[in-house]
Design a protein that fits this description.
Bound molecules: iron/sulfur cluster
Distance between the termini: 48 Å
Number of helices: 18
Protein name: Flagellar biosynthesis protein
Mean pLDDT: 90
InterPro entries: Puta_zinc/iron-chelating_dom (IPR005358)
Shape: globular
Number of domains: 3
Structural class: alpha+beta
Length: about 400
């Protein structure tokens, strides 16, 4: 059966920078080795001695047959003094384990089509996604496979396409695009449950375009955004505390830079206020992002594509929207505190904020459910409440 392979420019142009990488994936996390690679590495004449100490058999599954043993600095035992992989150098890419061969490459299937992507936890991937002008040039090639896939539900296809159109509507501020997507998701929820026909999504989309054009969407958004500081502070401290208590070993020193930047915003009584973070965003971060006007539109475009929004994990469309807004808000806070500490933002700072957040967030299998529970407990249950994170 004929299907498509969709590959954005950020995937086509990606190439690992190895020893130049500021947060190498060869450090500080569980590097799993599949059974075939494990056996071949142990049988290789130039690697077998090292493999006896650098690999530990765990036999959890064919894919997780062994694990790389990390040294006291958290580095994979196969790295040489120049931080280059000895498996790659001595035996070539073919002998790399599936994890090492594919990371940060990922893909998902939708209705039989394959969508290639990259994980934002790789700094070079983050640069490709967020900074390259051709990042979202999509290449479509025909592929054939024998497996049959269920078509994506019509409501999901419409929700995805309309969300992207609302996000990228020319001359519309990003906040209004997000507000419109939030309103649309309420209708998508009902279509997903079968309470309304999927044509209700078309009607709502058309209405939102009219509301955006005649200025009423802006009025809605401004009405939503009152009394925000307490809500925002609760969301920020809860997520940051959870990321701190569940932090991954990889990139820990970079994560600590964010923590230090947050602490440096404290006043004489050691209190951190949301108004100081928001002020840092408006007065330092936003103006220095001048050369990267489209940073968050690109990020959200990647997010929709990569996560297959709004079919994210097992969340409802509205839940997926709320988690996305929380991610957006956290990243804005990270950029604000780093901008306050460094008195501006370099490209390096920008990439660090996105990559560090996603290293911690993406490598937690239960993150989205945690985020939904947190939002529910903090009463971010309706659109008006969640939109306070945007102000
Ligand atoms: S994180 Fe990315 S750029 Fe860095 S070493 Fe791994 S694959 Fe290469």
């Amino acid at each position: 059966m004929k299907h498509s392979l969709i590959r954005p420019g950020f995937v086509t142009n990606f190439s690992c920078i190895g020893g130049e990488c500021e947060d190498s994936c060869c450090y500080g996390w569980n590097i799993h080795i599949d059974k075939q690679s494990y056996k071949k590495t142990l049988a290789h004449s130039e690697l077998k001695v090292l493999a006896k100490t650098a690999l530990k058999k765990v036999k959890k599954s064919e894919q997780v047959w062994a694990q790389a043993v990390l040294n006291e600095e958290g580095a994979c035992g196969f790295l040489d003094e120049n931080k280059l992989c000895q498996i790659h150098a001595k035996a070539g890419e073919a002998l790399l384990s599936n994890t090492c061969k594919t990371y940060p490459r990922m893909s998902h299937m939708r209705g039989g089509d394959r969508y290639d992507s990259l994980s934002l936890s790789c700094p070079e991937a983050a640069r490709n996604i967020l900074l390259r002008p051709d990042a979202f040039n999509l290449q479509r090639t025909e592929i054939g496979h024998s497996r049959s896939y269920k078509a994506a539900p019509l409501w999901a296809q419409k929700a995805y396409d309309y969300s992207i159109q609302l996000l990228l509507k020319p001359e519309q501020p990003l906040e209004l695009g997000l507000t419109a997507i939030g309103i649309l998701m309420n209708t998508v929820d009902r279509a997903a449950k079968g309470e309304v026909e999927s044509s209700a999504i078309d009607s709502m989309f058309q209405q939102l375009i009219v509301l955006s054009d005649n200025g009423q969407l802006k009025q809605h958004f401004e009405g939503f955004n009152q009394d925000t500081d307490v809500h925002q502070m609760h969301a920020f401290t809860s997520i940051q505390l959870w990321l701190n208590t569940n932090k991954v070993r990889r990139g820990r020193s970079r994560f600590e830079l964010i923590n230090q930047a947050i602490c440096s915003m404290a006043d004489d009584d050691k209190n951190i206020s949301m108004s100081s973070i928001n002020q840092a965003w408006k007065e330092i971060a936003e103006p220095t992002l001048g050369g990267h006007q489209e940073l968050f539109s690109r990020y959200l475009l990647y997010y929709f594509y990569h996560m297959n929004f709004p079919q994210v994990d097992k969340l409802t469309p509205s839940q997926a929207f709320r988690v996305m807004l929380l991610d957006f808000f956290m990243l804005r806070c990270y950029l604000a505190v780093i901008a306050a500490k460094n008195n501006g933002l370099s490209e390096h700072d920008i990439i660090m904020c996105f990559q560090v957040y996603h290293t911690n967030r993406q490598h937690k299998a239960n993150y989205s459910q945690f985020a939904v529970d947190l939002l529910d407990k903090a009463k971010f249950t309706d659109l008006a409440a969640i939109l306070t994170l945007l102000s």
